[in-house]
Amino acid sequence: PPHRGPGGPDRPGDGPGTERLAGTLVHALLQRANRDVRDREEIRRRARALLRADEKAGVDNCDELVNRAVETYLAILNRPEVTSLIDGDCLFELPFSLRLDPSSDSPERQTAGASVIVRGTIDCLARGSDGRLTVLEFKTGSRRPEHQTQLDLYVVAARGLFPGAAVEGSLIYA
User: Fold this and answer.
1) What is the spatial distance between Cα 106 and Cα 108, in angstroms, rounded to a whole number?
2) What does the alpha-carbon distance between residue 163 and residue 130 come to, in Å, rounded to a whole number?
3) d(CA 35, CA 133)
4) Measuring CA to CA, how many Å separate 44 from each of 39, 65, 150, 152?
5) CB 165 within 8 A of CB 132
6) pTM: predicted TM-score of the whole model, two decimal places
7) How far, in Å, CA of 107 to CA of 110, rounded?
8) Contacts (Cβ under 8 Å, ≥6 apart) of 134
9) Residues in CB range of 39: below 8 A, 6 or more apart
């Protein structure tokens, strides 16, 4: 059976984790690429340049991986509700540490036992012209219930990083 990574089952002939690598490449393009460039060949060139040698070595068909990532990236950019958010002031790959306290009455902060430290990385935190913050969590695989739980946690983290700011979250499936 195909390997199942976080992004879903890998395709036959791909090395383990190829779907995850495609998602990582999409995130890197969103963060680093000039989003005004829509020429597929130019984006493919940029995507290839973002792959490390060790990543390329683990992939049977690097061109297929790059093509998948480029098509997913362009599909995201073709969604006006997404581009309106990411064309403004954004923080990409924002790391955070959050202490979850079991005594809190907030459901998203409840844990069993003692408080725990959770670390993560928010894909994108976009600030609207009105100051509202939107946590964008990009997903390149199939929908899974734990994605909403992850987004809820990231929204809590963003509220901790920016006290007093209005924060909402959005799952973006490509």
Assistant:
1) 6
2) 16
3) 20
4) 9, 10, 30, 33
5) yes
6) 0.79
7) 5
8) 85, 125, 126, 128, 167, 168, 169, 170
9) none
Token output for 103: 């005594």
The helix-helix angle for 18-32 and 40-50 (nearest 10°) equals 110
Whole-number Å distance between alpha carbons of 135 and 125 = 5
In the chain, count H helices and then E strands: 6, 6
pLDDT string in tens for the chain (174-residue length): 222 233 334 343 355 578 889 999 999 999 987 788 889 999 999 999 999 999 998 888 999 999 999 999 999 999 999 998 998 899 999 999 999 887 665 545 444 567 889 999 999 999 998 999 999 999 988 899 999 999 999 999 999 999 999 999 999 998
Burial class (CB in 10 A: 0-12, 13-18, 19+), 123: buried
d(C-alpha 86, C-alpha 16), whole Å:
31
Query: How far is Cα 14 from Cα 60, in angstroms, rounded to an integer?
Result: 5
What is the number of other CB atoms lying within 10 angstroms of the CB of residue 63? Answer: 10
